[in-house]
Write a structure and sequence with these properties.
There is one protein chain. The protein is an alpha/beta fold. The protein has 2 domains: about 35-120, 3-Layer(aba) Sandwich (Rossmann fold), CATH 3.40.50.10860; about 145-270, NAD(P)-binding Rossmann-like Domain (Rossmann fold, 3-Layer(aba) Sandwich). It has helices at about 15-35, 50-65, 80-95, 115-120, 130-140, 145-160, 180-185, 200-205, 250-255, 270-290; strands at about 1-5, 10, 40-45, 70-75, 100-105, 165-170, 190-195, 210-215, 230-235, 240, 245, 260. Helix 6 crosses helix 10 (about 270-290). The longest helix has 23 residues, at about 15-35. The protein is globular. Bound molecules: NADPH dihydro-nicotinamide-adenine-dinucleotide phosphate.
């Protein structure tokens, strides 16, 4: 945790919290190895040569290696057919040495993303995207939970931010962030609203939030006067601005003047996503070897 230099919000240090999670993951990996003779293993599948995806995959593999998690690197050409990818995923599903399977998105146009994600064994679904795991989450029986919302919950827990009985507003309703985020907050007994592009009065909804999560994909969209004084502001957005810099969905400088806590971009939610991927891989290895 780092306190902001001026008056205003506590800036939540995602890098430091992610480091703590990764240290725990490393301990868990060492324990699985010594007690059960199991080396947790994550298969990473990248199709095509999208530069952003390549960086993500490299960072995930590096973080895994540092935590004592083995990786299987499958980099396939952009011309890969759905049938080829299907064969690979089936073989990874059957491989007892592999505990987690990550298919980096986006996939090339000739491949149907939904078909592929539904093919990943729900027991190896460390991204938490399989309909079975999504269903379990929404029934209040979470098993593999999508890494970004799980990371946000870990940040809130780290700072001991109370959720029960408080109002949470999630802007964004994607399957990978907004929807699972809202489910987790509701299960922590917050009263949750989900906002989206058709929400009638977005600033008004945001102003009602004790906990505001922005997962929109529009740089600096959430303005300072949308923030209830003292609110917790979690900025999931990662946007590239015209000047090549990274910016969140929240106007950070304005919002930090009113918020109680705020996550920066970069260095906020992003590092947590990778840490939770590793934590989910440990969970998969534990379950497979129980
Ligand atoms: P999606 O594009 O899938 O979803 C965006 C959501 O924002 C949609 O529900 C959309 O509403 C809503 N939205 C768009 N425009 C508006 C608007 N003008 N007013 C209100 N709501 C709006 O994005 P993702 O959920 O995948 O990602 C969101 C952001 O989070 C992106 O910047 C992405 O890069 C980032 N991200 C960061 C991660 C991390 O590790 N930090 C991980 C994953 C994503 P509607 O449904 O009506 O279209």
């Amino acid at each position: 945790m780092s306190d902001s230099p001026t008056a205003g919000a506590v800036v939540i240090d995602g890098k430091a919290i992610a480091r703590a999670v990764r240290n725990q993951v490393a301990k868990d990996a060492a324990r699985l190895s010594s007690e059960r003779g199991v080396t947790p293993c994550l298969a990473v599948v990248l199709v095509g040569d999208d530069p952003g995806s390549r960086i993500y995959v490299t960072n995930k593999e590096k973080a895994a290696a540092e935590a004592g998690i083995a990786t299987r690197d499958h980099r396939l050409p952009a011309s890969t057919t759905e049938a080829d990818l299907t064969r690979l995923i089936r073989s990874l599903n059957d491989d007892r040495q592999v505990h987690g399977i990550l298919v980096q998105l986006p996939l090339p146009d000739q491949i149907d993303t939904r078909t592929v994600l539904e093919l990943v064994s729900p027991n190896k679904d460390v991204d938490g995207f399989h309909p079975l795991n999504v269903g379990l989450l929404h029934m209040g029986r979470p098993r593999f939970v999508a890494c970004t919302p799980r990371g946000v919950m870990e940040m809130l827990r780290f700072h001991e931010i109370p959720l029960s009985g408080r109002r949470a507003v999630v802007i964004g309703r994607s399957n990978i962030v907004g929807r699972p985020m809202a489910a987790l907050l509701e299960q922590a007994n917050a009263t949750v609203s989900i906002c989206h592009s058709r929400t009638a009065d977005l600033p008004g909804e945001a102003r009602s939030a004790d906990i505001l999560v922005a997962a929109i994909g529009k740089a600096r969209f959430v303005r300072g006067d949308w923030i209830k004084p003292g609110a917790v502001v979690i900025d999931v957005g990662i946007n590239r601005t015209d000047d090549g810099k990274l910016a969140g969905d929240v106007h950070f400088e304005e919002a930090r003047e009113r918020a109680g806590y705020i996550t920066p971009v970069p260095g906020g939610v992003g590092p947590m996503t990778i840490a939770m991927l590793l934590a989910n891989t440990i969970l998969a290895a534990e379950q497979a070897s129980a």
